[in-house]
Amino acid sequence: MAKKDKALEADALPKTDETQNTEGDTLPSDNKATADSGSETTADEADVPKSNVIEPVAVDVRLRDIYPQDSYGRCGLRFKKGETQCIAIQALEPEALIALNNDPWLELVYVTD
Fold first, then answer.
1. What's 20's DSSP letter?
2. CA–CA separation, 72 vs 3, rounded Å?
3. How many separate domains does the chain show?
4. Residue 98: which of 65, 33, 89 has the closest Cα?
5. pLDDT tens for residues 59-85?
6. What is the spatial distance between Cα 85 and Cα 16, in angstroms, rounded to a whole number?
7. How far is CA 66 from CA 5, 62, 70, 72, 82, in A?
8. Is 102 within the bounds of a domain?
9. Which of 7, 50, 69, 89 is least enclosed, having the fewest CB within 10 Å?
10. Three-state secondary structure call for residue 39
11. Strand partners, 85
């Protein structure tokens, strides 16, 4: 019987039409949603990159052993058999990096932090 009385009390409460609110008041649930989305970031969070992309800082280039000569020149650089050259990414133009990457005689390994 107590459950039935509580149900009747809930039905007896005046119901307000939220769409008729012209005063610009917001619901408490609306305030919570905007408060959660407007959280401030700390200085530590601002320093961390937001992407999952791994950026290389250098590239190790090695002349393949199957090349018939002892050295090979490409993009103004000289590569020798048995030696690996570490070249910073900023030191290479994008076109040179693409040319080195597509060269069949060279083996490239990207270096990250």
1. G
2. 89
3. 1
4. 89
5. 999 999 999 999 999 999 999 998 999
6. 75
7. 91, 12, 10, 12, 11
8. yes
9. 50
10. coil
11. 61
| Domain encompassing residue 69 | 58-111
Query: What's the CA gap between 112 and 68, in Å, rounded?
Result: 31
Residue 28, domain member (yes or no):
no
The label of the residue with tokens 């905007």 reads 34
Asked if residues 63 and 30 have their Cβ atoms less than 8 Å apart, the reply is no
What's the predicted TM-score (pTM) here?
0.52
Helices (H), the chain: 2-12, 28-37, 43-47, 94-102
CATH number of the domain that 81 lies in?
3.40.5
In a domain? residue 31: no
Taking CB atoms within 8 Å and a gap of at least 24, the contacts of 49-53 are none
**Residues 18-44 pLDDT 10s:** 666 666 666 555 555 555 555 555 555
Residue 111 phi, psi (nearest 5): -105, 130
Round to whole Å and give the CA distance between 70 and 81: 6
Is residue 32 one of the residues assigned to a domain? no
Q: Distance between CA atoms of 106 and 85, rounded to whole angstroms? A: 11
